[in-house]
Amino acid sequence: MINKLCLFLGTTILLSSLFSLSYASSFAQLAQAETSATATAAATDASTAAATAATAASAATEQSEQTQALAAPAPELNKQHERAMANSIVCLPIMTHEQVPLYIRPQQCYELQGGNVINGNLTVQGKLFIKAGRKVSLTSGNSITVSNGGQFEIRGELDLKERSAINIDHNSSFNCTGLLYMSQGSQFNTRGTTEIKNLGKILIEPNSQIIFSDLTKFRNSGQIALNTAIWEVRNKGELNNSGTIDLLDGSRLQFLDKSKFINAGKTNLNAQSQLSFIDYARFESRRMFAPKGIVTLARNSVFENLASFKQQKGSSLIIRDNAQLLNNHTFELSGAATFTGSARILNDGVFAVKKAAQVHTEQMAVMINTGTFRNEGGAFTIDNQNNFINDNIVSGHESRTQGRHRL
C-alpha cells in the first residue's frame, strides 16, 4: 500500500515537472517570438522613419532649390536689372531762373524746364533734356557739344541763334521729338560714329548748314525743311527718311564719299534746289519721287529706283562720270536729262520719255533696255548707235529731233 502510494506520488511529481518544463519551454518560445516580432516591427518602423526622413530631406532640398531658383533672377532679368541700374540716373530739373551748368559730367542728368538761356559753350557727357512744351535758347556764337557717349534730346523747342552750333561727337546721340529751329548762319555738325533721330521738326533758315560726317546714322520720321540752306552727308553716313524732307528755294542736299540716302518717305525737291550724289554715294528710292529741281549723280554713284519716278517740267537730271541708274519700276522724264561720260542707264522696268522731255545720251554713256522703253513724243537723242542697246521692247513715237541716229 505504501509502495503504491509512493509510486503514485512519484508519478504525479514527474508529470508535474514535465508539464512545468513544457510550459516553460512554450513560454520561452512565445517570448522569443514576441521579441523577434518586436524587433522586426522596430526595424520596420526604423526603416519607415528613415525613408520618411529621406523623403522629407529630399522635399526640403527640392523646395530649397525651387526657392533659390525663384529668388535668383534669370540671366536675362539680371542683364535687364544691370541695365536699369546703369540707367537709373536721377534727372534734376533746372528752372528758368537757374543757371545752366556748362559741363554735364557722365552719370549726370538735367532737364531744362523752359525759359532757359544757354549763354556759353556747353559740353554734355551725361544727359540733357528739354522738357516737352517748353522753349530754350542758345545764344549767338555759342555751342552745345555732346561727347563721350552723352545724350541730348529736344522734347520741347530749342532755338539756335545766329552763328551758334550743335556738335554731336563720336558714340554720342541726339534725338528730337519737339522742334529745332536753326536761325541764319547756325550749324549742326556730327563727328565720328553717331546716332541722330528726328520724330519732330527741324527748320533750317538761309545760310545755315548741316554737316554729317564719319558713319553718322540719321533716321527721320518727322519733318525737315531747308530754306536756302545746305545739308551734306559724308564719309559713309546714312540718311534713312520715312518722314518728310522739303528742299526749298535753292537748298542743297548732297551725299559724298560712299554715303547713302534711303527714301521711303516724301522728299520734295523744289525748283532751283539740288539733290546730288558724288564719289560712290548711293540713292535708294522706295517711294514716289517727283523732283522739280536738279538731280545729279557723278563719279561712280548709283541711283536705284524701286518706286515711281516722275520728273516734273523744268527740272533736270544729270548722270555722268561712271555713275549708274538702275530702274526697276517706272521712270518718267518730263524735263531735261543728260547721260554722259561713261554713265550707265540700266532699265529693267518702264522708261518713258514724255512729250516735254529733252533727253540726250552722249560720249561713252550707254542705255541698256531690258524692260520697256517708251517714247511718248519727247526728244531722245544719241551720239551713236552704241549709246543705246535694246534687249526687249521699244514703243511709242519717234522724235523728229532724234538727230543723226534713231532707235
Report on the structure:
- The protein contains two helices and 42 strands.
- By secondary structure, it is α/β, with parallel strands linked by helices.
- It has a 15-stranded parallel sheet with strand order 1-3-6-9-12-15-18-21-24-27-29-32-35-38-41, with no helix packed on it. The protein has a 14-stranded parallel sheet with strand order 2-5-8-11-14-17-20-23-26-28-31-34-37-40, with no helix packed on it. An eight-stranded parallel sheet has the order 4-7-10-13-16-19-22-25, with no helix packed on it.
- The longest helix is centred in the first third of the chain and has 70 residues, at 2-71.
Number of helices: 2
Percent of residues in beta strands? 35-45%
Arithmetic mean of pLDDT: 84
Tell me the total number of β-strands.
Answer: 42
The geometry reads as elongated
Briefly note the structural class of the backbone: alpha/beta
Q: In which range does the helix fraction lie?
A: 10-25%
Radius of gyration: 45 Å
Q: In which order are the strands of the major sheet placed? A: 1-3-6-9-12-15-18-21-24-27-29-32-35-38-41
Largest sheet: 15 strands, parallel
Q: What's the end-to-end separation, in Å?
A: 169 Å
As residue ranges, the low-confidence spans are 1-62, 64-74, 398-406
Summarize, please:
This protein has 407 residues and is α/β, with parallel strands linked by helices.
Secondary structure: elements and pairs:
Layout: H1 2-71, H2 75-87, E1 91-94, E2 103-104, E3 109-112, E4 117-118, E5 122-124, E6 127-130, E7 135-138, E8 143-146, E9 151-154, E10 157-160, E11 165-168, E12 173-176, E13 179-182, E14 187-190, E15 195-198, E16 201-204, E17 209-212, E18 217-220, E19 223-227, E20 230-233, E21 238-241, E22 244-248, E23 252-256, E24 260-263, E25 266-269, E26 274-278, E27 282-285, E28 294-298, E29 302-305, E30 309-310, E31 316-319, E32 324-327, E33 330-333, E34 336-339, E35 344-347, E36 350-353, E37 358-361, E38 366-369, E39 372-375, E40 379-382, E41 388-390, E42 393-396
Parallel strand pairs: 1-3, 2-5, 3-6, 4-7, 5-8, 6-9, 7-10, 8-11, 9-12, 10-13, 11-14, 12-15, 13-16, 14-17, 15-18, 16-19, 17-20, 18-21, 19-22, 20-23, 21-24, 22-25, 23-26, 24-27, 26-28, 27-29, 28-31, 29-32, 30-33, 31-34, 32-35, 33-36, 34-37, 35-38, 36-39, 37-40, 38-41, 39-42
